[in-house]
Amino acid sequence: MMEINGCTIDSRLVKKTDTYVAIRGENTDGNEYINVAFDNGASACIIDKLPNEEVLKQYKNKVIIHVENTIDAIQKIAKYKRNLYDIPVIGITGSVGKTSTKDMIASVLSKKFNVHKTQGNYNNHIGLPLTILNMQNEHNALVLEMGMNHMGEISVLTDIGRPTICVYTTIGTAHIGNLGSRENILKAKLEMLEGITGIKQVMINNDNDLLSDWNSKQTEYNVTTYGINSDSEYVAYNIRGVGTGSKFNIDIDNNIYEVNVNVAGTGFVYNSLSAIVVGRALEIEMEDILHGISNFDLTPNRMHIEEVQSNIAVINDCYNASNDSMEVALEVLKNLAAMRRIAVLGNMRELR
Known about the structure:
By secondary structure, the chain is of the alpha/beta class. It has two domains: 6-68, Udp-n-acetylmuramoylalanyl-d-glutamate--2,6- Diaminopimelate Ligase, Chain: A, domain 1, CATH 3.40.1390; 75-294, UDP-N-acetylmuramoyl-L-alanine:D-glutamate ligase (3-Layer(aba) Sandwich), CATH 3.40.1190. 32% of the residues lie in helices and 22% in strands. The strands form three sheets. A nine-stranded mixed β-sheet has the order 6-7-5-8-9-10-11-12-13, with helices on both faces. Strands 1-2-3-4 form a four-stranded parallel β-sheet. Helix 9 (209-217) links the parallel strand 9 (201-205) and strand 10. The N and C termini lie far apart (56 Å).
């Protein structure tokens, strides 16, 4: 009986009992590296181009699965595997804050569940299937980040992931160069609802004008709202910066709670609110929710503040740049206590 515990597209990172999936890229063809994968302990390789006879002979006792298209294959296998699990699946999308929201929600859910989540930026048509294929039997909650550059891409992801709860961070201008307008961006993001299962629970940032307007007109989904400035079900107030983090208060069922966030910026207040909403929906105790928020770990290269000398701090937010994310980063920089502030800015593409 063959044991398979993981799935990877990088032959160099293959561990014993992994399945290696050969992906054809712009500069490399993964089909050329099955020897590296097997030498590193792969249980099987999925390929879409047969190797030469010499290689086939060399690995005649190994499992080589030849398919027409490896990306299509892992999407179908991941969809099948997802349907084997009757667990909470949280789908997250938006123009800004997807990854940090994913990290915070996963941290809160870990107080009750054994959580598997999207790693790094694996939020596309390859990364999301790999996330599901790397789930283990002991996992009983899944947090999936869904990204896109064009219309129709999230439709593919949500059909595979089948979220039980959908979370929307904000609708901004990221990828507006491809989609043409914020309204089209909203339309593309709303594709996540095509795959929602169960009672159709949706959590939205009600301070966002397009999400709020959409909610005022829809009747199909059970929407919970959160915000700072709007009339929402969950509202953060008395927000204040504390060192490299922040605190705020929230009133829930006539009880006032103080929320400690270990990363600075209003964006992380919104992330915290979404984590509270999801945690409450899954009946996690408020004490555990607050602990999950105050102790969450942020994915690298996203608002990571590091003190390099006693009086010098560097904010590493270099993963990506859009008008919306840049605005958030500069707000954090502006509000940090400092005698001097320097912004080193990268290119912002897809702007009109």
